[in-house]
Amino acid sequence: MTTNVPGAKLILLTTTHRVAPGLLAWPAWEALRSAGRVLVGEAGHPQVAAVRQAGVEVEVVPAGSAPALARLLTGQPAEAGPTVWLGSPDGDPGLTDALARLAVEHAGEVPEIEVLPGSYDLPGARLLDLASVMDRLRSPGGCPWDAEQTHESLVKYLVEEAYELVEAIEEGDRETLREELGDVLLQVFFHSRIAEEHPSEAFSIDDVAGDIVEKLMYRHPHVFGDVEAAGAAEVEATWEQLKAAEKADRESVLDGVPAGLPSLAYAAKLVSRVRRAGFAGVPDEPYELPVELTAASAGRLLLAVAQRAHDAGVDVDAALRSAARGYRDAVRAAEGLKPAEGLKPAEGLKPADE
Fold it and tell me: Does pTM surpass 0.85?
């Protein structure tokens, strides 16, 4: 086997499929243009076409055979320039092991190896993978169950996942919190992928993300505009003013409150809307325990509690869940059982406004 001229080099140019082809770092382009040879493991590599369009010749060679690599990497004179291996997005499984074997079996004959990052994942880049996976599951040849789902059939899962996320937050379970956030995120991507197939009103995950970006920028003029805000209270007031301007076509202060909320959360949301609007047309329910509870009197009592809780800054829904957990633990104690593990009272949780 021919021994390399001292100074020969192999550059492992790592890339990611999460950036557009050709968007490589400047040192990566310098390495490609000055290379004696540029090698790639498969013709379908996403960067091959862009590199060739830039005038750089690319050779397609198999990456899994150590003898083949030995022939490629030994015998390239240093003056011809370094050999660049254009790494595949999957990391070229087996390539590192093959190179390690070469370094041991052909000590002194394998060139110096340098790892050069050619492109980097930006924050949020893994969302592209989720969009790709969801598309694969929904497309022909994907998952039959996923392909059959509709917005309506997924509603129950969306509600379940949202409540499982709330539970993880209230329990303070960081590992479960991360998992449940992923499950809720999946629901957004799933519904968005289904929406792409609508015959007349299609939209995609990019449209969904674009809309919320525009909304956030519009409602944060103190960050993205020239409005000044002295504190959180002023920020909230500005938010409400801008939101009211957006919803100017609403007839009632209660328009937009989803009736599908759990009953106590629904009552709390109605009270919140009435209080913010300064609407005095409906008096508060009297907070008193009737002698005999009926469906009507029990409902009015709960509504009165929701009103008082709002005025006191208490999240009535979270407060009830916390009290229910305490009741559950008291029952378990009476049964001679320990409290349920990992659960603690929920405090200060406030449902997000729409």
Answer: no
